[in-house]
């Protein structure tokens, strides 16, 4: 836990107790939104890689089957 004096000093820099609460809330929202976007982008990339991998494997199967019949 922060010492009261340090907390009061931080609140003074952001416009008082209400400013401190708003700053903390805004920071939490920003971190939450950033985290959500990062996870969404990671999931998109993973899905795309899995899709590409699946397409490559099916292409190899089709290629091997067509080369066997000729």
pLDDT < 50 stretches: none
Classify the helix fraction into a percent range.
over 70%
What is the N-to-C order of secondary-structure elements (H for helix, E for strand)? Answer: HH
Total beta strands: 0
Mean pLDDT across the residues is 82
- How would a textbook summarize the main sheet? none
Any idea what the shape is?
Answer: rod-shaped
How much strand content do the residues show?
A: under 5%
DSSP summary: helix tally: 2
* Termini separation: 76 Å
Secondary structure class reads mainly alpha
Radius of gyration: 27 Å
Give a structural overview.
The chain has 70 residues and is mainly alpha-helical. The protein is 90% helix and 0% strand. Helix 1 crosses helix 2. It is rod-shaped.
Q: Can you tag this structure with a few keywords?
A:
single chain, 70 residues, mainly alpha, 2 helices, rod-shaped
Summarize this structure briefly.
This protein has 70 residues and is mainly alpha-helical. It has two helices and no strands. 90% of the residues lie in helices and 0% in strands.
